[in-house]
Known about the structure:
- With 98 residues, this protein is mainly alpha-helical.
- It is 77% helix and 0% strand.
- The protein is built from four helices and no strands.
- The protein has helices at residues 9-25, 28-37, 45-65, 68-94.
- The chain is elongated and about 65 Å long.
- It starts with 8 loop residues before the first helix and ends with a helix.
Amino acid sequence: MRASWSEVPSVITALGVLAAVLTTVSWLPQVRRTVSTRSARDFSWAYLLVLSGGVGCWAAYGVARDDLAIILANTLTLAMLLAIVATKVVTERGSRPA
């Protein structure tokens, strides 16, 4: 008889943590580039707002489920998104014609 995935919670937890780490770390190169070039022009406001809302909902879901991997991954991702938003606000404000 084979074990089902639900019978191996440590494997499922490890998979969730791995997914959280990979998806969160994937933002680091983009944040680094955005901050170092001081340009977030390629990001649309709609994209940033919708993605931030979705990530915020995932973080809230993690809180409701008491799932630390979901909470940490999405809170860190939201922080990186906010760094991109802040860069976009600052650079767009500075490039407006007087």
